[in-house]
Amino acid sequence: MIIIFTNINDLSTLEVAKRLKQMQQDVIIIEPDTAENKFVYIDEENILFRNSRTGREFNLLDATACWWRRSGLGMNNFSTALPEKFIIDGTDLSGLIHGARNLTFLEMNDLRDYIFDKMYKTCKIRIGNPHVMGMNRLEVLDTARQYGLKTPNYAVITNYNQLQMLNKISDIFVSKAIYNGIYQIFGNMSYYSYTEAHHKEDFRDKDIPLFPSLVTSLVEKSYEIRSFYLNRKFYSMAIFSQNNDQTKIDFRKYSDIRPNKNEPFQLPKNIEIKLESIYKKYDLNCGSADFIVDKKGNYVFLEINPVGQFGMTSEPCNYDLEQKIANYLTYGHQ
Amino acid sequence: MDINKILLTDEQIKNLPLFFKIIYYNHMVDPDAENRLMKYNNNIQAVEMRHYTPNRKLCLPFDITEFSK
Questions:
Q1: CA-to-CA distance for B23 and B8, rounded, in angstroms?
Q2: A186, A278: one domain
């Protein structure tokens, strides 16, 4: 039995699951949105779930392989029947079960952590790490420097006027989110942000306070690289985004008129070794790393996303990563 | 559906993260349009989007009362 913890409609998950079915594997997708797999109970030998559609009960500890693709478990997997109000002797105690820091959520959180941790310890074949589903952008930049990779200079500022003092930040600099950019729907409107370039000159002599904001030097690129890592193997792709004004700062501003050219790419061995050291430090056997190759041919590390998209690398480069993941989950090798 | 761009002024960005300075947005025909394309795949026992890569153009729902406004 192979377990995949994911989110609804993650195309990569579905493609891997289809391959596993073709390979006659028993695959179970657990996600928190439709949450058809519900928690039943735990004892010393069982972490029991039941599929509410088929009625099938299964013990997570019987899994031969597990892939932590995305969040996997949410409140709906544990309970959909919390009372709307919790009133005792006329006092409204609903804050205990609803709201930002309600106890039921914290209980669920600890229970989920326990389930993930126990599976991580007992499951022989694993992809991903439930304890490292996201990486702190600042911390991973520091780690990359420790392991000898070049990174862009960065600073976290709280006022426009601090930019003038930052000599290590280039005159044209980049602003990006420390956690995640904007990607929200309000009513019928969809809002989103990208990595953006700014000129220091536009902020000169202005006393404008900011919420702590990440700024980094702009690296003039020859091209950029997305590198998918799976158990000691790298599958890299060069993205030629630099010749199109629309995509040269952030390639996710896709151009339908002049799509970026994407090519399979071999990272230099010394870069792969350093990158693998970072994955090992965080106990990860899977992830996607981003690099810029600057005008001098230096490889400048940007970030690692442990749960990043890989379909965008798999398809244009013909790596068939979905099959490699399915092979790994089935046989323990690619 | 045009993509619009908001450039926050210095006054508007005050005490906000700098990455809020440029925000893009677009009007969606119907936020539930995507949900209506979901179907259950019995083989893998999961919900997936039908016609994710359609071989024909798909019509999006549109509220025709919008025309009268």
A1: 8
A2: no
Asked if residue A299 lies in contact with residue A267, where contact means CB atoms within 8 angstroms, the answer is: yes
Grade residue A258 by pLDDT with cuts at 50, 70 and 90: confident
**Chain B neighbors of A185, CB-CB under 8 A:** 28, 31
Residue A26 distance to chain B (closest CA, Å): 9
Tell me if chain B has a CB within 8 Å of the CB of A11. yes
How many domains does chain A divide into? 3
Of B23, B27, B45, the CB nearest to A182: B23
Taking an 8 Å cut-off on Cβ atoms, the answer to whether B19 and A177 are in contact is: yes
Q: Who's near A84: CB < 8 A, 6+ residues apart?
A: A94, A98
Query: Quick one: pLDDT band at residue A253, thresholds 50, 70, 90?
Result: confident
Its domain, for residue A199, covers: 153-217
Residues A6, A114, single domain; the answer is yes
Task: Provide the β-strand partners of residue A199.
Answer: A172
Q: Do the Cβ atoms of A175 and B19 come within 8 Å?
A: yes
Contact A138, A154 (CB under 8 A): yes
Answer yes or no: do A193 and B30 touch at CB < 8 A.
Answer: no
Interface contact A210-B43, CB threshold 8 A: no
What's the pLDDT tens digit per position in B7-57? 999 999 999 999 999 999 998 877 777 777 888 889 898 888 876 666 777
A148-to-A188, A270, A277, A295, A308 alpha-carbon distances in Å? 47, 10, 10, 19, 23
pTM: 0.90
Which one of A9, A14, A191 has the shortest CB-CB distance to B44? Answer: A14
- Do the domain assignments include residue A89? yes
Q: What ipTM describes this predicted complex?
A: 0.85
Provide mean pLDDT across the span A258-285: 95
- Model confidence at A225, pLDDT cuts 50, 70, 90, reads very high
Residues in A touching B41 (Cβ below 8 Å): 14
Q: Which residue has the tokens 């026992």?
A: B45
